[in-house]
Amino acid sequence: MIRHWPASYHAPVTFQLACGPDGRAVLVDGDGVHDLERVSDRAFGSDPMEALARHRDLHAVAEGLAGTEPDTEFDVAKLGPPVPRPQKVFGIGLNYKDHAAESNNEIPDAPLIFTKFPSCLNGPAGDVIVWGPTTDWEAELVVVIGTGGRGIGGADAWDHIAGLTCGQDISERRTQRAGKPPQFSMGKSYDSFGPTGPAVVSVDSFDDPDDLEISCWVNDERKQHARTSLLIFSVPELVAFISGITTLVPGDMIFTGTPAGVGAAAGTFLSPGDVVRTTIEGIGTMTNNCVAPPG
Question: Model pTM greater than 0.90?
């Protein structure tokens, strides 16, 4: 879906919606951060979830930011998860061929879906608690639903998406693989296991939202590097598949899968003191420090 705007067309101003340290919705504009309620003259409240449900109206607010003094300077360390209270958080397994190969699994015929409980969500600079000896990293593009629906067709899927953000599907592999069948959702839902951010970036910010560079470093060593055009099941296909089963609502999130380079493939896992850095083209960078469990 590459957009080439005609010279005479006034393209909408893109937006970056984030969540401030006090849970208030903010718009990021370059190096500045604007409180959404203030800059919209109270047309919006302070709740990021309300803003996501009205994502189309955010373009007009973003257009009005030109020449406006920001409330604060941009500081990723002060941001929380940009979608603080999603109703549903989906994860997609084995959605890159190289990751399926390194995991010794066949390429799936249909999306493999699990749940990350919303309580695991973390901010773009939040600490990741290493709850077990096989805690692993998984850099992922995350889709945020803005306009809900059921039975959404693939051709219409992007119109239902408020924006995209970075994610880490942190996984405790022993817990994930325990039992028959294994318990994916439990191993991926420990507290702090869902870093997201820095912001939800509107879809129209990208020339081609189906083809973004994604990278992950652990302690400055690049572990993962791919493009989202290599997804086995594309973003529109995932939205169509999931919405054919359950009604999507504003704020629902889809972790779209991780490329090759996870720790489990090499038998190397996270330890307290490690630093995980995740970058997606056009979205930004998350940096998460790994810490020991409390107590």
Answer: yes
